[in-house]
Specification:
DHHA1_dom; binds manganese (II) ion; alpha/beta; Diaminopimelate Epimerase, Chain A, domain 1; 5-stranded parallel β-sheet; 37% helix; inorganic pyrophosphatase (n-terminal core); Oligoribo/pAp-PDE_c-di-AMP_PDE
Length: 315
C-alpha cells in the first residue's frame, strides 16, 4: 500500500523511540537519508538511533552526524524506518514487532512496512525524504540539506544518470539555498583510497574478459588478490562504470571474491543500450536498478557468466 507523507508523519508523532536502518555497505543515499531523518526527528523531540553494522566508507566521514551511527542498538523501539534497501535481504536491521515504514526508490519487491513509499520516479531515497519533510513543513536546515544533497549527488552519478529529472534539480536548488555545500560534497565523495585502489584495479584490469557478441565485459578478482592487497569491495566501486566505457560495451560486471567461495557482483549498463542489468542480478539472487545492480552468490565465476549468457540467449 502506498501511504501519504502526512499519514507517515502521524506515525512518527505517536512514536517516542525511532530506529533508522538501511542496506549493508551503505552508500551516500543510504547514509544521507538516515542521517537527514535522524536530525529531523530529533527536532521533533524523538529519541532516534541510526543503525549500521557495516564499515562506513572513509569518503562519507564528512557527513554531519556520522559519528552517531551505532552498531549496538537498544532492544526496543516504537517505530522502524527502512531506507533505500531495495530488498528485505539487504535491510541490516531485523524487523521487530513494531510498525515499519519504508522509503525507497528501488522497484517494489518485498519491502517491509505497514506504510511505505516505494517509487522509482524519485532519483534517490534522499529525494523522497526531501518530499516527506516538505509536505509536512518540517525544517530543512544546513545539516539536513547536506545529508540529502549527498544522497542525490551520488545516486544520480553527479547528475549524469537519466534519473536526474527537472524535479530532482529543483530539489537540488532548494538544498543549495539552505546551505548544502555542493563543492565540498563533490570533493569528498569522489575521494578515493588511491594506493590500494590503484593496485587492485590494475590487477582487475589485467584480467578483463570481453564477450563482443553480447556487448558484455567482466572481470574477476580472486580472494587471494583481495587479501594480498587488503582490498575490500568498496575499493572496487567505480570499476564497473569504467569497464562500460570500453568500445562496443553494453554492460559490465565486476566479480570479486569477498571471502573464499563467496562472490560479490556489481553490474553497470549504459543508459542508451536498452539493457536491464537488474534482470541478471535478480536471477543471481540480488537486485537493483536497470543501469546498476548487484548480487552475492556462492556460484563460481564461470557459473555466473554462464547464467548471464543463458539469460541473454533465451530472452
Ligand atoms: Mn539509493
Amino acid at each position: 500500500m502506498e501511504s501519504s507523507f502526512l499519514d507517515i508523519k502521524k506515525a512518527v508523532d505517536s512514536a517516542q523511540k525511532i530506529l533508522l536502518a538501511s542496506h549493508d555497505q551503505p552508500d551516500g543515499d543510504a547514509l544521507g537519508s538516515m542521517l537527514a531523518l535522524k536530525f529531523s526527528f530529533e527536532k521533533l523531540g524523538k529519541k532516534t538511533d541510526v543503525y549500521c553494522n557495516s564499515t562506513i566508507p572513509e569518503n562519507y566521514r564528512f557527513l554531519p552526524g556520522i559519528d552517531q551511527i551505532k552498531k549496538n542498538i537498544d532492544p526496543k523501539y516504537d517505530l522502524l524506518f527502512g531506507l533505500d534497501y531495495g530488498d528485505m535481504k539487504r535491510l541490516e536491521a531485523e524487523v521487530p514487532d513494531v510498525p515499519v515504514i519504508t522509503f525507497d526508490h528501488h522497484p517494489l519487491i518485498n519491502q517491509a512496512g505497514q506504510m511505505k513509499v516505494v517509487d522509482t520516479n524519485f532519483s534517490s531515497t534522499c529525494e523522497i525524504v526531501y518530499q516527506f519533510l516538505k509536505e509536512n513543513e518540517l525544517e530543512i536546515d544546513k545539516e539536513i540539506a547536506t545529508c540529502l544533497l549527498t544522497g542525490i549527488f551520488t545516486d544520480t552519478w553527479s547528475f549524469r544518470h537519466p534519473n536526474t529529472t527537472a524535479k530532482t534539480l529543483k530539489v537540488v536548488g532548494e538544498l543549495l539555498l539552505r546551505g548544502a555545500p555542493l563543492r565540498k560534497i563533490a570533493g569528498f565523495v569522489s575521494q578515493q583510497k588511491i594506493d590500494i585502489k590503484s593496485k587492485i584495479w590494475s590487477r582487475a584490469l589485467a584480467n578483463i574478459h570481453q564477450n563482443r557478441k553480447f556487448g558484455f565485459i567482466f572481470c574477476f578478482i580472486s580472494f587471494q588478490d583481495m587479501q594480498e592487497l587488503e582490498a575490500t569491495t568498496n575499493d572496487l566501486s567505480g570499476l564497473a562504470s569504467l569497464l562500460c566505457m570500453a568500445p562496443g560495451t553494453k554492460f559490465s560486471l565486476v566479480l570479486s571474491e569477498e571471502s573464499p567461495g563467496k562472490l560479490d557482483g556489481s553490474f553497470r549498463a549504459l543508459p542508451d543500450k536498452e539493457i536491464d542489468v537488474s534482470y541478471f542480478a535478480k536471477a543471481l539472487g540480488g537486485g537493483g536498478h536497470k543501469l546498476s545492480a548487484g548480487f552475492k552468490t556462492e556460484k563460481t565465476s564461470k557459473e555466473v557468466i554462464k547464467t548471464i549468457e543463458q539469460l541473454i540467449v533465451s530472452d
